[in-house]
Amino acid sequence: MTISDEQVAHDKAIAFAQATLLRDIEEFEIQQSHGGKKHRTSLNEQANLFNYSYVESLKYFAEEKDRYQFSL
């Protein structure tokens, strides 16, 4: 059984999105805070942060695969 390049890119993107989610939430809360009041992210905002990170990293890992194959 072989794993497709798309599956590898997907797996890497999921792992990256999971690994960076807490950092992304903290950065988002800091950006959205006003004065001394800390912004608490909603579940919807957290899902959006995860989805954005996943999509961007999936694009990156898919392109990385193409660059690697052409450099052989």
Structure description:
By secondary structure, the protein is an all-alpha fold. It is 78% helix and 0% strand. The protein has 2 helices and no strands. The chain has helices at residues 5-32, 43-70. Helix 1 (5-32) packs across helix 2. The radius of gyration is 16 Å and the shape is elongated.
- State the helix count: 2
* Estimated share of beta-strand residues: under 5%
- N-to-C span: 23 Å
How large is the radius of gyration? 16 Å
- In terms of per-residue confidence, which ranges show pLDDT below 50 for 5 or more consecutive residues? none
Strand count:
0
Characterize the main sheet. none
The dominant shape is elongated
What percent of residues adopt helix (DSSP H or I)? Answer: over 70%
Going by helix content, strand content and strand pairing, the class is mainly alpha
Strand and helix order: HH
Mean pLDDT across all amino acids: 88
Could you give a quick summary of the protein structure above?
The chain has 2 helices and no strands. The chain is mostly helical and 72 residues long.
Name a few traits of the molecule.
single chain; 72 residues; mainly alpha; 2 helices; 78% helix; elongated
How would the blueprint of this fold be written?
Blueprint: H1 5-32, H2 43-70
